Amino acid sequence: MFFANVHPMLVPFAVALLIMGVVFEYYGLFQNEESARTAGGFNLRLGLAFAGVAVVVGFLGVIGIADVFSETDPRLSPEVKTRLRQFLLYHILFACSTVAVFALALIAFRFRERKGFHILYFLLLGVGLCTVLATGYCGGELVHRFGLPTPVQ
Question: In terms of Cα–Cα distance, which of 28, 9, 15, 4 is closest to 102?
Answer without folding.
Answer: 15
